[in-house]
Design brief:
The protein is an alpha/beta fold. It is built from 15 helices and 16 strands. Helix 4 crosses helix 5, helix 5 runs parallel beside helix 6 and helix 6 packs parallel to helix 7. It catalyses: 4-imidazolone-5-propanoate + H2O = N-formimidoyl-L-glutamate.
């Protein structure tokens, strides 16, 4: 008689929304078997092997989803920009705010002035809000230091933060976020520092999992982005790109040509961009928080992405200037109401396709044997409820690497 397999835990009593292949693929009255932080069996309870589980957890109905993935954030920064938000609503223009020393440069000054410990502490408060809503994987970018030392401090803060939270934290070097004030008359000087000094040090210290840039008329040109991407690729670092947010520069197609993990924002993406992204497997990361706060009217071409089979992720874009969003679940609703996603597409966007945007689709983002045991139990009747409810923290039980949080 075969010996019963010993496992760490068995989770029963709820319907499982697996998100396999980016669809609900719901298993009624399912079972999840976990050992050493990984899922070793997922299926109907009636078909579950006779595991000998050290712990058995029984839910009273509800649904289990993969842990949520927030694949685009700027959670580490100094200061805040709430005063500017109030000024804008009182009729002060962006130009006037910038002339007063506001805008992104105010965040740069505050970030440069903050210690690594201060950056970690403030980011932890913001990240905790996301974790409370079921996020178990998050990406965090640098990009508010805009000098060599401060960018490294930001990346080290992200790595330190990763050691303190029950979540998988990916770090992205976004030194090509904008041009430092010191280099406003010498943009090539900053690009040279990024490519020749900063990225090699980031790679040597293991401080980032990917390299990002902002391709826009008010930031980096496609040619400048290409220079940064060439340097990243020479170091073996994956790339991604802020592209087509305010204008059409074919940045998304450029990113795809480098095999980019993702192109993000994409309000002005074209059919050529969508075709290139589909060809190279680049994920479209949609960011409704910035669209909403900036009161934009040009929506990302969701129909084009569907037509060409481009995977669509959703993210909070949590940042101090254009998307001070601390709820990924709110982004689910905005993705549907503002961009026209279906609830199933939206949930796929913060699970499997969010994971793919980080290069983690083989280990994260769906509930399948062999993947990490990151999942969330919600006392809800159906997955569309995650998209439906506006505001308020829905009660949930987060399981990270097989351990209840």
């Amino acid at each position: 008689m075969a010996e019963t397999e010993q496992i760490d835990s068995l989770w029963l009593g709820a319907d499982i929304v697996t998100m396999r292949d980016g669809h609900y693929n719901l298993i009624a009255d399912g079972a999840l078997a976990v050992d050493q932080g990984k899922l070793i069996w997922v299926g109907p309870r009636s078909e579950c092997p006779a595991f000998a589980a050290r712990e058995q957890h029984q839910f009273s109905g509800g649904i289990i989803t993969p842990g949520l993935v927030d694949c685009h954030t700027h959670l580490v920064f100094g200061g805040d920009r709430s005063q500017e938000f109030e000024q804008r609503l009182n009729g002060v223009s962006y130009a006037e705010i910038a002339a007063q020393g506001g805008g992104i440069l105010s965040t740069v000054r505050a970030t440069r002035a903050a210690s690594q410990q201060e950056l970690v502490a403030s980011a932890r408060w913001r990240l905790d809000r996301l974790l409370a809503e079921g996020v178990t994987t998050v990406e965090i970018k640098s990009g508010y230091g805009l000098d060599e030392a401060s960018e490294l401090t930001m990346l080290r803060a992200i790595r330190e933060l990763a050691e303190t939270v029950p979540a998988d934290v990916q770090a992205t070097c976004l030194a090509a976020h904008g041009f430092p004030p010191e280099f406003k008359d010498n943009p090539q000087g900053w690009i040279d520092i990024i490519c020749q000094r900063l990225l090699p040090q980031v790679k040597a210290e293991g401080l980032a999992d990917a390299v990002d840039a902002f391709c826009e008329h008010l930031a980096f040109s496609p040619e400048q982005v290409r220079t940064v991407f060439d340097a990243a690729k020479a170091l073996g670092m994956p790339v991604k790109l802020h592209a087509e947010q305010l204008s059409a520069l074919s940045g998304a197609a450029l990113a795809a040509s480098y095999g980019a993990l993702s192109a993000d924002h994409l309000e002005y993406a074209t059919a050529a961009d969508a075709q290139a992204m589909a060809q190279h497997g680049t994920v479209a990361v949609l960011l409704p928080g910035a669209f909403y706060l900036l009161r934009e009217t040009q929506r990302p071409p969701v129909a084009l992405f569907r037509e060409h089979g481009v995977a669509m992720a959703l993210a909070s874009d949590a940042n101090p200037g254009t998307s001070p969003a601390l709820s990924l679940r709110l982004m689910l609703n905005m993705g549907c109401t503002l961009f026209g996603l279906t609830p199933e597409e939206a949930l796929a966007g913060v699970t499997l396709w969010g994971a793919k945007a980080l290069g983690l689709q083989h280990s994260h983002g769906s509930l399948e044997a062999g993947k990490v045991a990151n999942f969330v139990h919600w006392p809800l009747a159906r997955p569309a409820e995650l998209v439906y409810w506006l505001g308020g923290e829905l009660p949930c039980q987060v399981i990270y690497r097989g351990e209840a949080q």
